[in-house]
Inverse folding.
């Protein structure tokens, strides 16, 4: 019995020794850490580019606070992979509409990424009722000539809402002096940013101490710009055919009331759902239009949807 006990004790000692040796071999040395990075699934630290800018205005990346804040946004948006892929897919569909409007108005192309962080390029409605891709408030929409009522809400019209966003941004740039501050003001308002600049006696966004949302705002825009511009660098893999495309449409002018958009849609070989997909600014099943205003309703070209008979 004692012989068996001694044998078992010896085997146990060998096992413990083996486990100890294995643990030492598996310890996080530089050498086996590098092997794991190659052979296993891991989450990688990101290499921050040597230079980044928004609308041609550079980020002061040598400032450790700025470095950490852009690192955070790059990490968050790189490793939220499903959302990232959706941004690539939607950008292919909506950037070709947004880009020429920005260019026409003299607004830097980088502001298309502001739309990405505002709404994810969807017709979102915030808790404060900011609406559409550009998240425009009702009062701002009306002040800038957009129609907002029970029948029609042109904040859902991407072309018209982009024009309003451009007007707002140009005004902010004139007041605040830089595109970076204009971007921040899109979130916090011109008055809010001006007040903070005056209180803290600084002149640019990167020197301001701001609340969480506005403090992250420009960094989020720059991070999305960097990732969407360099998908391979951040591990996003897709083919051109994986991205979303705009369906070609033609415009139909309507200058009278429409009593039933279901019947209206059928006259063009589509259903009500398809009509609303292409005209989300139509907010009801009918259009009163007592003033005889001219509206341009988009109808998809034939062959992209099943015809309705």
């Amino acid at each position: 019995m004692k012989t068996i006990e001694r044998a078992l004790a010896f085997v146990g000692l060998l096992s413990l020794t083996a486990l100890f040796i294995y643990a030492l071999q598996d310890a996080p040395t530089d050498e086996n850490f590098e092997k794991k990075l190659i052979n296993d699934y891991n989450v990688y630290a990101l290499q921050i580019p040597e230079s980044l800018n928004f609308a041609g205005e550079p980020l002061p990346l040598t400032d450790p606070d700025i470095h950490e804040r852009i690192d955070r946004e790059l990490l968050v948006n790189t490793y939220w992979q499903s959302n990232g892929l959706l941004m690539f897919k939607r950008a292919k569909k909506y950037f070709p509409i947004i880009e020429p409007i920005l260019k026409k108005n003299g607004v830097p192309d980088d502001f298309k990424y502001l739309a990405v962080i505002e709404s994810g390029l969807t017709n979102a409605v915030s808790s404060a009722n900011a609406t559409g891709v550009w998240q425009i408030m009702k009062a701002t929409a009306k002040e800038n000539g957009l129609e907002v009522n029970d029948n029609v809400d042109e904040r859902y019209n991407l072309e018209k809402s982009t024009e309003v966003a451009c007007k707002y941004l140009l005004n902010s740039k004139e007041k605040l002096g830089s595109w970076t501050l204009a971007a921040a003001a899109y979130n916090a308002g011109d008055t809010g940013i001006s007040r903070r600049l005056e209180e803290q006696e600084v002149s640019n966004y990167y020197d301001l101490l701001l609340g969480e949302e506005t403090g992250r705002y420009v960094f989020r825009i720059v991070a999305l710009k960097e990732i969407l511009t360099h998908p391979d660098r951040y591990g996003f893999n897709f083919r051109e055919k994986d991205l979303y495309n705009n369906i070609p449409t033609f415009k139909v002018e309507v200058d009278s009331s429409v009593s039933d958009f279901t019947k209206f849609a059928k006259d063009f070989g589509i259903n009500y759902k398809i009509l609303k997909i292409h005209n989300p600014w139509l907010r009801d099943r009918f259009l009163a239009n007592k003033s005889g205003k001219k509206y341009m309703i988009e109808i998809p070209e034939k062959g992209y949807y099943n015809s309705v008979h």
